[in-house]
Amino acid sequence: MTLVLEAAVLGILTGGVYALMASGLTLIFGVMRIINVGQGALVILGAYLSFVLFRTWHVDPFLSLIVTMPVMFALGVVLQLIFIRPLTTDREALSVLVTYAIALGIEGILGYIFSTNYVQLRAWYETASFAIVDFHITYVYVFGFLLCLAILGALFLMLYRTTFGAAIRATMLNRTAAQLIGIDVDRVAALAFGIGMATAAAGGVVFGITNAFNPGSHYDLISRLLTIIVLGGLGSLRGAVIAALIMLVTEDITAVVVSPVWASFAFFVILVAVLIVRPQGLFGLRVRDRI
Amino acid sequence: MAALLELEGVTAGYGGGDILHELTLTVGEGGITCIVGPNGAGKSTVLRVVSGLLRPRLGSVRFRGASIVGQSPRAILRRGIVQVPQERSLFSTMSVWENVRMGAYTVHDRALVARRLHEVCETFPIIRERRHEPAASLSGGQQKIVEFARALMLDPALVVLDEPSMGLDPKTRTVVFDTIRALNQAGRTILLVEQNARSGLGLASHGVVLESGRIRLEGPGLALLDNPEIGRLYLGATG
Q1: Contacts of B74 in chain A (CB under 8 A)
Q2: Whose CB has fewer CB within 10 Å in chain B, the N or C terminal residue?
Q3: Which residues of chain B neighbour A179 with C-beta distances below 8 Å?
């Protein structure tokens, strides 16, 4: 029983990190109707930026976010202007190719600079742990979870308590109507892409402390992130958070109770079952609701 | 009636093809101009050109004498042209109140926004009655009224309505047309595109019949309704 409880707690803590990484992906889809398959590579890029600051100036990985999040935000705005904005027709399909090209470009550059050897971010809280009842929790999972809570909380506050957030939500719900009430949807799209990349930077730090990574680590990551936003409902931030928690808790408990081999399978059973009942995902809007 | 909006020699379309061919159209201030015509005539394209969603390939569009060609929808909105699109355009998961407030997105004077909200609620009591409910929970007709209310938040000089009766039952359609008439009587200039020629032209001070991107007939709305050609072409099918 303790093992199951421990797995559930760990699932929730790591689920928060995945929720943060997926939140950027779902936000970008909601605003721009593009599937950013480069989000995994951007998470890895964020991890490498923190790695450089750590290796060069011994900056604590979490503190490095003060630098890496604004840098990634700016890079996101530039990438959106150069690669996404010119896609005026067949945007959803072309965006997959364009963002995949961005991912390959990032992987190639990182491979050239850092080689394909695995690296990992280091900090005292990477291995240090504390005891709760009968099990131990490593500090990094708690810090990572708290960081994700803070960033997701800020994201929700921005979306639901500010005029700019209302503009983002309006653009997500009806792009033409948003234009007709004076929202500069191109500006909203550029800033949303930037925000998505800033969350990737934050997710990258926690991912980089808890996992060894190399430039090719994004393939596994993006498949998991896409699965999360499909379960949660494309474009739903709340859905991404809940789906990430379902994924990680299910996998961790299955790994303990049944076998690690069946961990991913158990999650996919849930995914398929939900999609049969609700093809739009847990919190996604049906297409006819958008019209 | 002085001209508020003038389109002259406008040619516009999507991709390589043109929908409008050297279209010349004047919207008089204080009136209701109604464009009718069959599907594919280019009615909605005219409105997309006016609101800046589509840039014409040739020709000029002047509002109060100043060119607005090439301006963004936001800039055109600021000049006082507000469009209510054909399809349901409320932000479905936002509340009725939030939707109406979003109409004043470009207004930064909070006192002004509060005053306009008050005025809009006086005109359309349903806004206050259903303020907390998500927009998607309203009926089609109620949603159209909220869209009108949202458009009025900018106190526009010209309200552009794209097929406001589309998808509504006859009773609700009557309510919507009565509302359009009331808006006009309150001093708003209306540019209306309508599939239902009898209702649209019956309301209009000036009617325009569009066919294949060109004006086929124009004149006072009621006079057009009496035109045998119009009766034969449209009213038999729509009346």
Answers
A1: 179, 182-184
A2: C
A3: 53, 73-74
Go through the domains of chain B in sequence order and give each one's CATH number. Answer: 3-238 (3.40.50.300)
Residue pLDDT, tens place only, B155-213: 999 999 999 988 888 888 888 899 899 999 988 999 999 988 888 999 999 999 999 99
* Contact flag B92-A170 (C-beta cutoff 8 Å): no
Whether A182 sits inside 8 A of B78 (CB atoms) is yes
pLDDT band of residue A288 (cuts 50, 70, 90) is very low
Using a CB-CB distance cutoff of 8 angstroms, which residues of chain B are in contact with residue A182?
73-74, 77-78, 105-106, 154
Q: Do residues B225 and B50 make contact, with C-beta atoms less than 8 angstroms apart?
A: no
Asked whether A196 and A183 are in contact (CB, 8 A), the reply is: no
Of B87, B92, B102, the CB nearest to A181: B102
Tell the CATH topology of A2-290. ABC transporter involved in vitamin B12 uptake, BtuC (1.10.3470)
Nearest 10 degrees: CA dihedral of A65, A70, A71, A77? Answer: 140
Crossing angle for the helix pair A218-232 and A39-57, to the nearest 10 degrees: 130
d(CA A174, CA B177): 25
Contact A173 B83 (CB under 8 A): no
Q: Which pair of structure tokens corresponds to residue A201? A: 């930077």
